[in-house]
Amino acid sequence: MASLVSHPDEIRVVTKRFGQGATDLDRYLALDGYQAIQKALAMTPDDIITLVKNSGLRGRGGAGFNTGMKWSFVPKQSAKPKYVLCNGDESEPGTCKDRLIFEHDPHSVIEGVMIAALAVGSHTGYIYIRGEYRYLSVIMQRALKDAYARGFLGKNIFGSGYDLDIYWHGGAGAYEVGEESALMESLEGKRGIPRIRPPFPAVVGLWGGPTVINNAETLASVPPIILGGPDWYANLGTPKNGGTRMFCLSGHLNRPGVYELPMGYNLKKMIYEVGGGIPGGRALKAVVPGGSSTPILLADEIDVAMDFDSLAKAGSMLGSGGVVVLDDTTCMVKFALRTIKFYQHESCGWCIPCREGTDWLKKTLTRFHAGAGMKKDIDNIYYLAENMLGKTFCPLGDAAAMPTMAFVKKFRKEFEDHLDGKPCPFEKAAEPVMV
Amino acid sequence: MFFSDEFEARFADMLTHYPTRRSTLVPTLLYAQDEIGYLSDEVVAELAQRLDLNELEVRNVISYYSMLVTKPRGKYNIQVCTNIACMLKGGEELLDHCKHKLGIGHKETTPDGEFSLEEVECIGACSWAPAIQVNYDFHENLTVQKMDEVLDDYKKKGGEIL
What is this structure's pTM? Predict the structure, then answer.
């Protein structure tokens, strides 16, 4: 069980029931649980969508698309059943937030799926949880069972005449399944290979029916938005970036942990005040702002508001909220190698630029870090990554390419320091930091 | 036939959740593996038959997911994360330590069948790095010393019936 942290700057919206026993249905009800769904049942689907749209809630999985907008793409009339699919296949390196939501507040995810289903006119939802999170799957199965037992799910929910079923589903180890079309393939019992788009899932999704796919944190944000109103939520954050978000602070920090902070919180403050700064008074070298696929920021680039638009302007992405902090003992070539090793392992091989690109990047970086690098390798690494960009069905290719290009662009000197048979300049200096 | 009553009840329930039988495949494979230890030829044949698939289709799915294995492994599968957040906090040192202590490498099993070792990708414990999973149990904020304690605990447990 992961330990919880807190900081005075936190605004608890999604995490407000953490540590309060809200996995228990009665406790959840006592803490305003299943109020939002009852309010939503009295609204029209269009009103729900408008409300969520106006709240400025954007996809917490990483893409940052306006959630209400996403829901509005689902056709009103459909010959095939419509579905809501909660993406709990959290596996972007640096990200460990959905895990806490499932552990402490599973009913908030269920309630979020229910409201999404009402909004798009769906009668079936699925909550997909990654295979490694078995204990959370157990918690979710119990939560669903309890909700059915009270008549919150099933036929005629809350006496409204609306039928709604929600089921759990489990993965078995695959990062790529976190991509929405691969997620649907996996749920249909297949290899998690991405689908070509268009058609988009909102039109042709699970078993050919229109499907809304949202991240677990996104869906858990919906009930408080319904209750608190769109203006309240929007005003917590920055323009067009409504609300709060769970930031997963990791790496070289005195107080790592998952903190819920307002959207647009300053990154520097996040590192030095919320995260307690860097152990041993060491200097900051760089920060991965939103999970391993987001381009790295240098120490002098961290005076930035942590929202989708500000990070994009800074040449990176807010991504999934995984903030990984690196001190000055970190070898960036090694860090680049470990990052690409992950994407090489997770590439499904369906698209050749990603399959070959990640493999050659791993081979080149392995040789390079071992001291057998050549000057032309540096440009080759950049070129290999650049040629994966936008050339694959799913964003895994981009996820591998974007950080790699940033490593070369921002740390070329460090690559050069590894050249001509020199050992890695950090190997001796770098004592493993064991906290 | 060779699964527990709990497995059968869950499987029967899951079949009612989806419009196609095949949709139960991925989680069912993992639960089957948990009971039998690995996805043996018999398990593959049985699940293929139950879900109206041919064995090749089932194997095709198995080969995609990193948690699914077709060969036996140790009772306790030590999964050490060395991805970025864990690497920064000593995940690779933990992996090396386990290799020496257990005398086995990545995806190998000790001769007594107690332990297997695996270097894994991000397990969602970044803020509590370095972290490992032993089967499904998380162990977080580890040091080499704490790692020894974890391994010793499982060694002691090993004699007991699970």
Answer: 0.96
